[in-house]
Amino acid sequence: MAEQQITNSTTSTYSTADRLKSQIIQFGAILDRGQSYNPTSGSFYADRMAAAKTKIEELVTSSKASAIPASLQDMEGEWELVLTTVPHGIFRSSPFFLAIQEAYATVGEIDKANLFFKLHELQTCSWGISKIGRVAQRINATEGVLSSEFDTALFSLTTVPILGWGKLLPTFGGCVVTISNASMNASEPGLLNLEVDYTTAKPVDGLSGLGEFIWNKKVPVGRIWKYLPWNKGRSAACKLYCRYVDGEMRIMEDIDGEYFVYVRPVCPRT
Q1: Which helix (H) or strand (E) element contains residue 105?
Q2: Which stretches does DSSP call E strand in 28-144?
Q3: Which residues contact residue 38 at a Cβ distance below 8 angstroms, ignoring those fewer than 6 apart?
Q4: Residue 9 falls within a domain, yes or no?
Q5: Which residues form the domain of 19?
Q6: pLDDT reported for residue 9
Q7: Pairwise CA distance, residues 111 & 99, whole Å
Q8: What angle do CA 118, 183, 231 make, to 5 degrees?
Q9: Domain tally, the chain
Q10: Element (H, E) at 116
């Protein structure tokens, strides 16, 4: 009886939105931000991912238009990814990969984009070659810029148990940063337009880097993109739809109907 009273008290304290947000964050922890379910490996955890997506859609539906942003100012600041429903890698939150997805979709070959993401994941994550850490975004409404960041540790788990338990190679890496121009149109609430400008890298405290020669070097992705034959002169552009935002959580949807859930960081990175 006491347990039931506590449950009822807790239920009455929290709103529907608070309850759904808490459940979504819990799914993010259970599913390792979405990495635990991978169709390449098998269908295990598919039910949990489906349940997580249902909770996201419940929150979006229950909030309706009141939580859809009309401008970049409504999404200003730093956000960290806690859950995504996309298959084949949480790195897909980067506008660089979103632009690849949209380029293939434009010519009606979205299946090739999914194959690209699958192969990229297999090449970078197999045998402990790469492990993705913090994934985040910073939105500067004044400058109209979205900075996408993800930390990557290379050779973090390179060992062969049969031969011994020591690591074969040292761990090193850094933070990969993609800078994009960002804009919203007041006539289309929630629609975020992005165009990739450049990609760079910066060190991560406590993680050995590749060397000073690589930090802050800008790769002009936006300028190169148009000359790649399969892009046919198109810019490195993509779009996302913000389906929900408040002071704590932001939910984005890509052109395939998959979600990226961000929250305000407990420990902001300066």
Answers
A1: helix 95-106
A2: 77-84, 130-140
A3: 87, 88, 121
A4: no
A5: 15-263
A6: 43
A7: 15
A8: 45
A9: 1
A10: helix 110-125
